[in-house]
Structure formats: structure tokens, C-alpha cells
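Meet our chain:
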Amino acid sequence: MKVLIPGALRSYTQAAQVHATGATLDALFQDLDRQYPGLRFRVVDERKLLRPNMRVFVNGLGVRDLDHALGPQDFVALVLALSGG
């Protein structure tokens, strides 16, 4: 499936869009980490939760559950939420 990568994480992928596989978001992030070591840790914390500043959209729908099922034709967009004062 296609995965949109935010600018802050492109140092891992060298591309704005990559291809990865996985039946769930968790499996997708594992595949992304296999292809681009270190990427998963920037998105998922050590408790296996999405980091607070990360947003994930599957076919335009916001998702936070790593067990969310994915299909091979899905489009996943990773978005970094802005924070600050």
C-alpha cells in the first residue's frame, strides 16, 4: 500500500511516498521499520502507542488503534501535529 511520509521523517525514507505491507497498522510500521530502520520508533513509543504528536489517516479517516485492519489498496498518511506555544 502507499504510505505518505511527513517531511520530518523523510530523512529515513528519502521519499515523500513509499510502499509497505501489513494487515494492521502495527504490521505496517514493522514493515516500514524493516525497510527504513528507526522510523517506527519515531511514530510508535515503547508502550506500543502512537506518539502524541503523530496522526495517522487511513483513506482519509483518522486512526489511533495500531490493531486497525488494512487492505492492500489502502492509502496511509502519516502527519506530524504541530505543537508549541
Observations:
- DSSP finds three helices and five strands in the chain.
- The chain has one domain: 2-80.
- The longest helix spans residues 25-35.
